[in-house]
């Protein structure tokens, strides 16, 4: 039995620990406690406070939302406090949440009480204040009542509109700034290239990027924003939470597509399960699902406790940690020859998913060292047979977070990282400054070849329908494709007979001819996409587009590569002078084109394609540059998305609604209220053909 004194001293300890964790998390963007541990301490604190109410401290962690704002930014006092959410950890907590609300409101068990359920985005919250439709300031949460003025930085975020049409006179839109997994990885890769600071996770990267004293740094970071709440309003957005979300979307904000209306706790938990299943594939981190009473009148009646609303709760995902046995270490060879160690584990459930593989990063990681030679896991190495702790973050690939040396088998030996490629036996040295060993086998290495082919058909590359990783492997094993060009000669080689393909399991007349059609469709390709598809080391999507824009045409690029071959001279100088292109990227590109076998393979491929020049953007001759255009009614010659993209490319701003600021309305058949309004406001109206005539040839 816990005594009064024990509880008192434990509460003091908890206040100190949670206080420190809060400062680290909110103040310095560097968490020192993981979320599950933080939640556990906070729950323990609440339980003790519930058992010994008079021991509740004046500085109780339950009453603190964040940490005091840091120096450096001016301060903004929130017109309406920015609150936190209380947590639910299982279905029972969710049922209690519903019962508590019913009790508070005096609702019968049979009275409908719908809730919204939406992902809890793992980023940092931001409040955006608009007056007369203009963004006037943006503030972080800070301690809930005073936040940091990050207006200049927020203006650089594409998802945050600078202007709102048809908005209430005053509206504070709140939501989460976050970074996608892909952008986070790219940012860290770039940071590591520059020798800059690496971010621990996308949340820290988003926070660190938003809270930059130099807004140009924020601009260079790919931040995103989901709107999900509001602060001060001069008039209500809607009657319901769902209606308000729709309204935020109409105003031009991104709202989360997984937001759903649920009729009670059971439906909430079902939706939670669905979101949890999709969690790994969302492309951004979420750490739970937020439930909110849908009826805003009821929300108003329910109000707030000291730091949390009564009408909302965050149902957190289970801590994603588990212990299991490391059964083996496999070495995989990637597209650029990198040898990646993969842990083979005794299967274990981590956060609801059975995990049997985890990444081990590189040989230093296994040995207990980081890239700079410092210790990780207190220097403990990882050995086959070890008892290891698996950590599954919101991203897809689980990691090994820790190892329990006390359970190490006596005969376990340090892992001997191979110095040769396990696939082709070529040397796999480690270049100075590189954390990984790389196979030097190049085209003779079957693993590299297959990985390159998989990359070639990947979504951001040729994206050929029906030709995915599995088919590529099959075709490679069968000797049908050895290099990218072979994909485009498949139809000719199988020609009329196609017998071999049709004899294969899973392939019939129809699927084979569909595949060949899909391949033909992709013969027309943009220069940038083609370059990316080649899978040259250091030449990612962004670099490929920069190179493509620089050269403009395939011929110019080809000639340029020959001229830049000595890695000196005017063509080379121009190339490394391109903004965003580094010497490392340029060298890698030029070297790939200078390698006789690689160049021959590239040329064989190019001969089978119709490579599109890069269209240089010049809006000076555009009659719609700077104009605000609205599309309405059905368009017959293009989709709405195409119309919008084209207009934007020509320098126009496309809006969803007609106002005094609209310059042009393009109205197809079935146009209704927008067309009427345009007439009233004297806005010029065109039909689809007139629009096409106006922009013809551009
Ligand atoms: S609602 C009054 N909805 O979680 C309640 N918050 O732990 C306002 N968060 O401070 C918050 N996704 O930073 C809400 N869909 C969502 C959210 C969300 C992430 C964050 C937000 C909030 C924290 C509370």
CATH topology description of one domain: D-amino Acid Aminotransferase, Chain A, domain 1
Q: Please give the alpha-carbon distance between the first and last residues.
A: 80 Å
Unreliable stretches (pLDDT < 50, length at least 5) are none
Round the mean pLDDT to the nearest integer and report it.
Answer: 89
| CATH homologous superfamily descriptor of one domain | DNA ligase/mRNA capping enzyme
What is the spatial order of strands in the main beta sheet?
A: 2-11-10-3-9
CATH architecture of one domain: 2-Layer Sandwich
Structure classification: alpha+beta
Would you write up a description of this structure?
The chain has 698 residues and is an alpha+beta fold. Among the domains are: 75-316, DNA ligase/mRNA capping enzyme (D-amino Acid Aminotransferase, Chain A, domain 1, 2-Layer Sandwich); 457-487 and 489-522, 5' to 3' exonuclease, C-terminal subdomain (DNA polymerase, domain 1, Orthogonal Bundle), CATH 1.10.150.20; 526-612, DNA polymerase, domain 1 (Orthogonal Bundle), CATH 1.10.150; 628-694, BRCT domain (Rossmann fold). It is 37% helix and 18% strand. The chain is built from 26 helices and 22 strands. A five-stranded mixed beta sheet has the order 2-11-10-3-9. The longest helix has 24 residues, at 4-27. The radius of gyration is 29 Å and the shape is globular. 33% of the residues are buried. The model has no long low-confidence stretch (mean pLDDT 89). The chain binds 2-(butylsulfanyl)adenosine.
């Amino acid at each position: 039995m816990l005594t009064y004194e024990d509880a008192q001293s434990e509460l003091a300890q908890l206040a100190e620990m949670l206080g420190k964790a809060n400062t680290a998390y909110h103040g310095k963007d560097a968490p020192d406690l993981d979320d599950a541990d933080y939640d556990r301490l906070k729950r323990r604190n609440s339980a003790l406070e519930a058992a010994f109410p008079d021991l509740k401290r004046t500085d109780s962690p339950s009453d603190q939302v964040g940490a005091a704002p840091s120096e450096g930014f001016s301060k903004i006092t929130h017109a309406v406090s920015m609150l936190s959410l209380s947590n639910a950890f299982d279905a029972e907590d969710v049922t209690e949440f519903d019962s508590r609300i019913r009790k508070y409101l005096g609702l019968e068990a049979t009275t409908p009480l719908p809730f919204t359920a939406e992902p809890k985005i793992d980023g940092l919250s931001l409040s955006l204040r608009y007056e007369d439709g203009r963004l006037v300031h943006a503030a972080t949460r800070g301690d809930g009542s005073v936040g940091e003025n990050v207006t200049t930085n927020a203006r650089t975020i594409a998802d945050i509109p600078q202007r709102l049409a048809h908005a209430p006179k005053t509206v504070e839109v709140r939501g989460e700034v976050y970074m996608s997994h892909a952008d986070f990885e790219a940012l860290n890769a770039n940071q590591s290239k520059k020798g800059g600071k690496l971010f621990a996770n996308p949340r820290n990267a988003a926070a660190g990027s938003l809270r930059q004293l130099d807004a140009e740094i924020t601009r260079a970071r790919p931040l995103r924003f989901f709107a999900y709440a509001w602060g001060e309003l001069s008039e209500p957005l809607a009657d319901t939470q769902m209606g308000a979300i729709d309204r935020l979307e109409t105003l031009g904000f991104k709202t989360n597509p997984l937001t759903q209306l649920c009729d009670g706790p059971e439906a909430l938990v079902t939706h939670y399960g669905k979101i949890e299943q999709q969690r790994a594939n969302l492309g951004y981190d979420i750490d739970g699902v937020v439930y909110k009473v849908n009826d805003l009148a009821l929300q108003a009646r329910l109000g707030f406790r000291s730091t949390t609303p009564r009408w909302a709760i965050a149902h957190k995902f289970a801590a994603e940690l588990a212990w299991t046995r490391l059964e083996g270490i496999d070495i995989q060879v990637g597209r650029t020859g990198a040898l990646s160690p993969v842990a083979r584990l005794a299967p274990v459930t981590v956060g609801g998913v059975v995990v049997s593989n985890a990444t081990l990063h590189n040989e230093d990681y296994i040995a207990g060292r980081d890239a700079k030679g410092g210790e990780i896991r207190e220097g403990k190495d990882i050995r086959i047979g070890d008892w290891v702790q698996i950590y599954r973050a919101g991203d897809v690939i689980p990691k090994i977070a820790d190892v329990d040396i006390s359970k190490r088998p006596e005969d376990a030996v340090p892992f001997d990282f191979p110095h040769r490629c396990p696939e082709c036996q070529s040397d796999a040295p480690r270049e100075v400054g590189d954390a990984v060993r790389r196979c030097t086998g190049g085209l003779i290495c079957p693993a590299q070849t297959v990985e390159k082919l998989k990359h070639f058909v990947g979504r951001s590359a040729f994206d050929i329908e029906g030709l995915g990783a599995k088919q590529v492997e099959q075709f490679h094993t069968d000797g049908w494709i050895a290099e990218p060009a072979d994909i485009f000669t498949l139809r000719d080689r199988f020609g009329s007979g196609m017998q071999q393909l049709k004899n294969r399991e899973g392939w019939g007349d129809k699927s084979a001819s569909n595949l060949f059609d899909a391949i033909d469709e992709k013969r027309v390709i943009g220069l940038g996409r083609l370059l990316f598809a080649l899978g040259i080391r250091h030449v990612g999507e962004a670099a490929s587009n920069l190179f493509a824009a620089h050269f403009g045409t395939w011929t110019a690029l080809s000639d340029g590569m020959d001229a830049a071959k000595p890695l000196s001279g005017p063509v080379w100088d121009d190339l490394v002078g391109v903004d965003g292109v580094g010497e490392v990227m340029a060298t890698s590109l030029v070297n790939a084109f200078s390698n006789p076998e690689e160049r021959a393979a590239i040329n064989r491929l190019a001969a089978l394609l119709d490579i599109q020049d890069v269209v240089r953007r010049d809006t000076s001759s555009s009659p719609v540059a700077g104009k605000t255009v609205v599309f309405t009614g059905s368009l017959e010659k293009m989709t709405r998305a195409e119309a919008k993209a084209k207009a934007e490319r020509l320098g126009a701003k496309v809006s969803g609604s007609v106002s005094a600021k609209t310059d042009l309305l393009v109205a197809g058949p079935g146009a209704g209220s927008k067309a009427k309004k345009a007439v009233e406001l004297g806005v010029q109206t065109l039909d689809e053909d007139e629009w096409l005539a106006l922009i013809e040839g551009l």
